[in-house]
């Protein structure tokens, strides 16, 4: 049931960091920790050090609120109230105390859900965007020594896009035309990590998640225009598009002060510079319908994260954390489909052992995007974006 839910949200650029409830509660830290099956995402090298086999699944309903104030006006446009549902699911198995473990993860590292409606000032730039990227990652992890372990996984991505925008061609009733580009595709990549345990409380992790080029072939290009110009927008029509999903390099530290307190910190570099253009190549072109090449020119971005966990006993865990992420969209290239900006966030979490082999974990995140005033070079849309994000989350873990 979790696997058929739409994975729709974005964080830095359109990257999603909702890969594990324990990790969210601790400020999205996890590269230098071995807590549960989410190590498949955060650091496959840590997976072999997990003391038990497990199966877990979680979901993080996301409430994204964004507002746009056009330059020189008092008007305000708001995104529709839609709830995104990023999810994660992991399974880890292997002989107890063995030098190896295997696992599989299904998670949502990238996506976007934005709906401004069809009556706002930027409707010719975008009305709505629904971008999904679901990764399937079989993984193996091995212990090289008492302190050092490594792991890697193959990534298969199933991605899709559904983009609508208005066309400045009105019918007899004054309604604008509309273009909808809808399609799905696939891509391939990998995830590898190294994990080092000093056995003196300090653990260190390094992880690299590769770029995944997602190619969409034979997407549907649907144009609703007045009958007088329909011949200039041939139907049926298809398009091709490529969406480069960037690589991420992470360094993480974990430190167990004692049996009750655990601290963690992560630093992440995201290679967003691969996202230069949002391009659509139409199968049938006319003088009025040419292939679309919209510049994005993203730059590499970083984030820093920190968190802590306190366990008063074996049944409960209390978590908190926070972080800061820089914007990937450069000045002049901010778009309403992803109104990117520098941001900070705070998180909290609660873990409860409901039964001998069953754990329940809760998390909550508040994310604040700093207001950003921009004039887009391509569309000349000018104004100020302000956005907030609210994300509760829950997961269940069965371990043996």
UniProtKB/TrEMBL annotation:
It is found in: Cell outer membrane. Keywords: Cell outer membrane, Membrane, Signal, Transmembrane, Transmembrane beta strand. It is a multi-pass membrane protein. InterPro entries: OMPP1/FadL/TodX (IPR005017). One of its GO terms (cellular component) is cell outer membrane. One of its GO terms (molecular function) is long-chain fatty acid transporting porin activity. It comes from the Bacteria. PANTHER family: OUTER MEMBRANE PROTEIN NMB0088-RELATED. Belongs to the OmpP1/FadL family. This is Long-chain fatty acid transporter. It comes from Mucilaginibacter xinganensis.
